[in-house]
Queue: 2 jobs
Job 1
Amino acid sequence: MPIRDEPTDAVRLPPPMDRALALLIARAAGLKTDEAEALKTALFGNGPPTFGQVRRISAADLASAADKACPKTAVVALKELAELMPRIDPRTPVCDRCDESPLSNVGGKIFALDVGAVCPFCPKGRLELVPMKLRMVAWTDGHLTEPQTTHDLRILPGCELPLQDEGILHWADGWIEPALERALRDAGTSVYAFLAYMRLGRKTLARIEDAADMLHDPKRLGLADARSFAEAAKAAKAFVEAREVTNIPAKPFLIERLGGRNLPRLTVAGRTYLLEGRIGRGDKTDVFRALWDHQPTERVVLKISRTLDDADLMKNEVRVLKAIQASEDPGAYFFTRILPEYVADGTTVGSDGLERRVTVLRDRNLFDWTLEDVIEEYPEGVEPQSMVWMWNRVLTLLAWTHRIGYVHGAIVPSHVLLHVQNHAVTLLDWAAAVRYKSGKERIAIVSDGYEAYYPKALLSKEAASPEMDLAMSARCMIGILGGSPKDGRLPASVPTPIADFLRLHGMYGKPSEWTRAKDALELQKAFGKIAESVYGPRAFHPFLMPRKRK
Amino acid sequence: MGGGHYDRDAHEALTTTRVHKPREEVFAQRKMHPSLNPFGVAMRESRDSDNHPNSRAIILVMDQTGSMQDIPENLAKKTLPKLMTTLIDEGTLADPQVMFMAIGDAEASGEREESPLQAGQFESEGSLMDKDLTNIHLEGGGGGNEGESYDLALYFAARHTSIDCFEKRGEKGYMFITGDEPCFSRVSAKIVKRVIGDDIKRDIPIDDIIAEVSKRYHVFFLIPDLPRRQYAGCEASWRKRLGDNVIGQESPDDTSLVAATLIGLTEGTYSDLSEVAPALKKRGVNKDQAARVYRAVAQYAAAIGRGGERPAAEDKEPPTGQGKGRTRRL
């Protein structure tokens, strides 16, 4: 079978990589600089070789070139060098200070370092990719071609159309409109990019044969003055950059379309995120909506610690959320898509030089309002029918949470999040959560300002139990109905059976007065009957956030 | 390739006649069909033609291993025409050209798969598409090593397709990979050589090949139903690479509609998520299925800024200094 070419074989090494190659030859073969240059010239002639030439060098090629250029070179060193050279490709990083490329061969084992690593050969350097074009746009019809292709022979039979700037200039009798030339230079773009954009983007260059004339007289392309030249030059640059293949990882154009170009960036666990803005202030963290700076992207929320001493709590939340996602309970496929989904966690150093913990979760689209927001928006209380679906959803989530062994331990209005249109609910902030089945774990923290939502048993550090979550959820419902979570008082507008039921399950008064439901599902069933007795069979009841303004 | 008309009636007629046929009869290949063999193929081309001046490349990658065969079967028996008609009728794409690929598990130890990669042609005409689809050799191997050769399909799309929609008009094609297992972390040079014939010398990291494909295609990974999201960390593994372009469907039956809807959202046929379910219902999709499709595409819609209006985020910087918490320890 014939050996195929790599698409980058015909690309010449850019100057830094050419220097890196000479340094590598010197280092690996133990040669002085001038000897290494001589060997390189014996191998490839003058000037930078192509990647294909470097890749195809065999031990025999090296030996015969060394015979001519530096006959005393050790045979073993040449063999090691021969093994190293095929490893050089457009993605091989080079030190930004000393031009070394840290490839080495120790007894046949090849070592390489990645982009971003500290250079082992000089004190301050870092390894970076040398930007280069691997495929370029042919301005004639938009095909991507090898960057060394000089002419398009296909599109106009019998006509060689230059694709590179040099050739295009020659074709245009050596000159283009000076103001246009200046605009292209200022924008850092090339003539072929300009032609590609006018022909394929703006479609004002229909006849290829006219291209040279157009370069002399851009008015014919609809460009009248220096300003329109500058705009076109900028657009041309973007046009080809979006298409051409380079050795640099792809640019996230979608994110830029979303306005991401100017957003502040933050890196957590090796991934960079673009911060859209703050969407909330939790108990321990400020919460930001963000996008992964990558194409395709991922929408996330970042919880960035505001305090510096709650790392243990954030770690506990991560532990619990990971366990939820990893659950093998038969219901997991469903609930893992509703409950918060862990993406990553780590630390970041802020503008103040302090290290902060960050937890990254998936952003659930349109889950935008907490019950805290609801209470603020409806201080007199929501319609009880709306409360019915909200509690129902909360109880379903709690039923599963309890089934897999966790008590949430902080069901307060700021931790219950609604998707208003879909009548969906999720539970936030799992920092307090514990496994309860041993009967020994206790909830160790309280959300300040929400003490009224915590049953006394929890505050007095009794063992965590599912009924604590249930009681807190009942108190949340009392809260959104305009009632008092502290003692269970409710506005007179709430139908008595519903008010009584909520109070009964809110763990008010002495333990002997509590009515205990066996579990969340039983409670949900019992409440369903009460709700039906008041409102009849279930029906969709619209709820608005923010409420309708008059 | 890519000539011929799309004739919906003929295409539907083709598929409806075989609804009740067993899978083995619809997919009769017992070894790789020569027309689908990727070995030595230079380029699969999606080209404009007089009949199809606005060709748009769509690659559908079927996972032909045991657990995933319901999708190709479903497409062949019922839903492939639905993908085409939805795209055309909704005005999303004028001239879609579909190419089928199928992948197996080239790394499966023990049993050597015969057809770890199959690749058809870009076709505009229903009967030709259908031929490629039903020529796929469903091997039913795989499993056991937590990964399938999705990387080969990505490699083939990156290096062996040439598409006018992008090369002439800067419009990206679409690539949908259906599957239920994680991807391997590299494209293996050894396997590429064996299966496709290219001499790439070294393995290519999967992230690099995805970046390469993403230049010219919108790449999606479709998981057929919710339980399979968790299978061997399937969803998590893909999300690390494709973010919100990983789609958790609720039923394998939805594949065509989900793909058509994802294209519609990307192209702006639906200006936001709220238009999706009504549009599907108008096309006679029942309420439950419309709701399933809506849920499947919701996160992607949000990712491209079509998720619907949300309360604005405050223009604030990350916290600094020792801030005040609201947590009291008991």
Job 2
Amino acid sequence: MSPKRFNWLYPTRGLTLSGHTVLSEMIACSLKSQTPFGTEPWFCEWSRVVLFVGSVIGLVLTNTICFAQETAHQEPVWSTEQIAYFESKVRPLLIDHCQSCHGSEKFKGGLQLLSREHLLVGGDSGAAIEPGNAAASLLIQAVKYESLQMPPDQKLTDPQVEILANWVQMGAPWPGGTGPEHPQREQATITDEDRQYWTFQPVHRPAIPKRADGSQSAHPIDAFIEQKLAEKNLRPNASATPRELIRRATFDLLGLPPSPEDVATFEQRWSAEIAAHPERDVPQVYLDLIDQLLARPEYGERWGRHWLDVVRFAQSNGYERDGEKAQIWKYRDYVIQAFNEDKPYNRFVIEQLAGDELPDATAASRAATGFYRLGVWDDEADDPRQAEFDDLDDVMVTTGAAFLGVTLGCCRCHDHKFDPLPQEDYYRLLAYFRNVQRYTDPRPTLGSSTFLPTIDTSQFTSVVAQHETRRADARAKLETATGSEREALEAILREETLAIAESDWTNGVREASSVAPVVHVLIRGNAGQAGAVVEPGLPQIFGGQTLAVEPIDGPLASSGRRLALARWIADESHPLTARVMVNRVWYHHFGKGLVPTTTDFGKAGLPPTHPELLDWLAAEFMQQGWSVKSLHRLIMTSEAYRRSSQQEVSLRVAESKRPTAEGPTEDPMLVDPGNDWYWRANLRRLNAEAVRDSMLAISGQLNPERGGRGFFPRLAGEVLAGGSRPGAGWGVSNELQQNRRSVYMFVKRTLSSPWLDLFDYNNLTQPIAERSITTVAPQALMLLNDDFMLKQAEALAARVRRESREDLALQLARALELAVQRKPTEHEQHLLQQFVARQTTEARQLKNRVTLRPDVPLALHEGFLRQSQPQDCLRGPQVGWSYLKGRWGGGYEGIVNQNLDFGPAAMWDGVSFSDGMVTMRLVLGRSTEFASVVVRGIPDGDFLNGLEVRLIPASNTVEVSKLRGERVLLGQTSVPLATGESIQLRISAQREKIKVWVNDLNEAALEVVDPEPATAAGRVGFRTWGAPLAVDYLSVDTAAGQIELEQPDEADTAGLVAACLLILNLNEVIYVD
Amino acid sequence: MSTNSKRRHQLAAPSPYQVDRACCGTRREWLWEMGAGFTGVALASMLSQDGFFIRQAGASESEPITSTSPQNLAKRVAKAKHVIFLFMYGGPSQMDLFDYKPELQKRDGQTVDMEIRRRSMQPSKLLASRREFKQHGESGLWCSDALPLLSQHMDKLAVVKSLYADSFAHGSAMIQMNTGRIIQGYPAMGSWLSYGLGNENENLPGYVVMLDQRGGPISGAANWSSGFMPAEWQGTVFRSNGQPILNLATPPRMTAGMQRDLISTANELNAQHLATRAGYSELQARIASYELAFQLQTTAPEALDLTAETAATHELYGLNEKPTSHPLSVGAAPFGRQCLIARRLIERGVRFVQIYHGGGHQQQNWDAHNGVEENLAIHCPEIDRPIAGLLTDLEQRGLLDETLVVWGGEFGRQPVSQGDHGGRDHNPKGFTYWLAGGRVRGGTSYGETDELGHEATVDRHHIRDLHATLLHLVGLEHNLLTYFYGGLEHKATGVFDAEVIHGICLDS
């Protein structure tokens, strides 16, 4: 505790007591009736307590009158009665209930209760008592469970609480002066060592190192890298091949594969240039490639997404309702645009932190302040006071992680354990954000705390003025107006919304006025326990100064504090801003940062492997006008970036281009298997978005549409089922929309696409700049079985058929080339052709197969169900079939339940009949709960009526029922129903006579009579629950003849589709050398 | 390789400053990459060497347990290996089920001041339970007639009546019950546990979540998120009906044989790719993951195939029970099926199975604002036989000692009436959980709420203590099990001191 705080808390008032005979006798009397065991645990009967408490109240009242001054240096004098009271009542209580945690062994919360002085000094939460004022004493509040809850495991009884309160009220008499030791608290001090830590040193531009022989590397980055390699006696790999390079560069910058043509052209030009200009260290064709890639709009989508990870971008609030953050997509689009136009990074920082306070604020800079609105927001926070600081903490932590590489969250409750950041500094820094209005469910109104107009300030001012004039007029006219005129005027006065189009608002930051509230240190981060007032200021380690601010008035008034802070962060003299950003860019190019912990440059993070290089890059970055694109060029032209990723010595190109004088000696795989020294490039897996986007690019389905609210990928029923209101807040997008890049996928905090999740998407709530890379079996399931993948495989097959006509070898070669940008080897071509042949043969067996798959949960939100298409509920072939959503009901709070007897159905459009015989083979899955065939099927709205034959494999039962708005069982029988095997099924319906054959076509398994047979013609329908149902060789015999289901003949293409699916699953597709 | 330092760092528990990072990293990295199953790798053996686990006094780590060395068995403290967490979403009413309050019964209808939301005192009418309470078994633990079958198992339960939490609202309370914090973004207990213990079965996830068919809980997937830990530790949602896991069915018109061919051929091509990239074990791991994926298509449905269970077992779990006539009731069968699947999953090595009972909103779950009697009438019959059946079944199979069963919601309910239909509002200040199995001291009533059942008063425990206790019972020490993120060695129990509730544990 600081000396200042000590003085503040130390009491200057105490008490001395003169004798009060009558009362003391009363006390003595009641004491006598107490337990004889003076310091034993004190348990008493109610009657005694009442008597006793009554006597003490009298004592306290008298004492209050007799207060005398007690100075800090003067030992208070206690009466024997008071001492007796303390010794018999209070001390035992403290010993039994408090001192095990607040004694000489432990002092939780910094508090010891060993002497009166200990209590006066208190702990982390301040003084424990205020003598003479029990109500204001933390000790008493705590035992009453009003602020803290002490003792935590068992509340004291009311009489026990009374004893403590009375004791404090009488001045907390405690004999024996100070305790065994004077309590001392440590003050966080910033040492010279702290100040000298590399993180806080200004960026200096080191000289570029020379080699031992005095020569210099062609590239400054390589000079630094080579220096370390030479120290470690490591020989770096030679350059990667042109194909490897263009793939690496394209994935790095765009997150998409190059086209085979791009690769071929690049390779040709490369060879030609090497032949013509062997002296060139970096071929021009490669430089051109980098420029071309940087100019592509896909670049911003890739690198903007990296930034979105750091700022935990999401489009919803989280928690129970998880409402949409309206218009927040403008922030995402701003970020993408900023990267694409190579907005100087210092400006990018300022715009996000204070884009509204800039004198030259623009629509874009205001959208940038969406930065403040990205966090989770609990619309029914348990403790709104605390939640307000939780929200501010979220901004602090993100600011620390994103811009400063400092873990600020640690010092919210206490001094930082590793870094020189005292708790007070946290609140000084927080003061710069304190005037930001809390997020609310936004409506674009004048007084909105979250909506910011994107039109210019002058135009906005004039709109506001018009609005005010209109209201003033209305107010004036209201005096005399009556009837409908009056109502109209009142309506105007109620109006809050300004006459600005919704598209002219953005979800950004607003401050209520130009005057910010006072900020206190919050003791242990508790919003209910304000400590000392602090002024806005920088952390002491950064100088501790208070920044000059210029408050802004007018309709968008603000304190100007954020702009001051933003300018400090974005200043060239800041030791961290440029370092953190160059490290981040480096991380995304190499898969590892020079500082491996990209959001923590503190002592708990890892130190830089190449501190000089980091500084040189930071200095160069600033000198190049904070241009991120220049930084890419710089990094990507280095040899370090262009190296081969080979690991095995035997496989590496035998001779490095530039052997060191002594020659390389060490096997890098033994010395540096983790590649800390960049002797090779790292083979890297694509991130989640790039995996998905690559599939679309390879199949040719990628929709390049940019920007906007985003699209909703179709989610499987299993995924929807996880929501408390399944499907609520989710939308339905058409296929074209769903084929957009993943960065435009709607980001909802409580429902995210398993596609991204499985491939290590970020966690949407906290800044995570380094995604983990995991390899798990469900990823394989996704890439083998997911609908999305099948669509891409089919599209790829169609594409190569179109592009390569009838020649299978060419088709396969093209598919592989699109996927991995090289021709297949002979062996590969052979393997693939054999595979297609086998698959085709198998597929022919399934030529007449129709597969129907249920894909809805049992409960759905009405709104989502309304938007859904029937064919989304039961999935099957699109041509020749009709679908029904099924009957849903039992609605409760907007959620409706599926009626399994009338669930989603598929109908074969082929034939409609009343009397006839249906034959088919069915394959039930292991998880099938039941599968139904409906004859004489007639839709009734969304569900299917008719005669249902239901197969239930778990109980080996076949049932025949009549469906007519309700299900009436007509008959049932036991038949073995194997799953996974073909079951022959025949159903005959002749007027009232219904017969069912299962496997044995000679003898009907079940014959029933329909007492009221339908005479109208109906179709054949299917339903299934639990697992997909395969239907083979469906045919109908009627008086008019036999009609067989003819599926579009896909057998001949099925082999190619399977081959395309195989190709999309290859390691080479998602791993980049 | 690219992920070395990162993995090393993220897994860096114990702190990177206490352990030789290079050595540790390599060993872990190897394990990470070789395991490409559901959760990547079994960490247990590795972590035990790193000091994660509670050291057992008097028992040598290397000594095998054999039936011929009972003295060893006696010395050793058995640990639960699995947890089945029966999550009563919505917040069940303690004073109508386990926390009998005679004083409340006496004062029915009296008006008292009650904290209904944080720092919001409202005069409210006390609502006595309409249930009959009795003491059961040798232990004489109280249970109401709402759960007639479960009440026959009270001697197996340790009923903790004095828990408290930090939020009056479902969203944050759910998140806290699962992750320890009221703020989103931290790993769920199931993630901590499977991270700490590793996986026993590569073909199944370590942490399985099953949801009520009426809908998932509030905040959905955030409840089983692995937070800042890698996604492999997040809960995997298992459907108890139909396809258990996402994307388990082969595409239409592709048979298992055809897919087998596809994987084999792809692996042949992948092997060629790998041959020129030797040393990159992650490529190998991905090849292995395809084999496992193929196996999963058989093993996962097998775990859910209840036809392999006897009719008596079906009966035991209430799978044949018909729903009550209440329109919102789904009967005992769905939850019974999930309890039975939970047993099958833990038999197959799954570490943490969490079943959410109750979905959607209010009366569809335990959120009894609109009538506690109606709520109990809907939900108690849905869980009573399944839970009683689960406890019986685990005991009969000798699995109860190694399986910790936990029952409770995100908070409890108020002793006062809400609305016109005798509802009860949320109450995080005092509520009940029970635990059974594992090394739980059965037949224990632990802690007390005040005389009305509103606030925990005796042996109070914050739910971080419950979390510490769960970890303790599976042999993990909450102060040692850490995960490094954002400059801090995070603990499942957070930055505040947590205390194992030793009073309900047999080994202490």
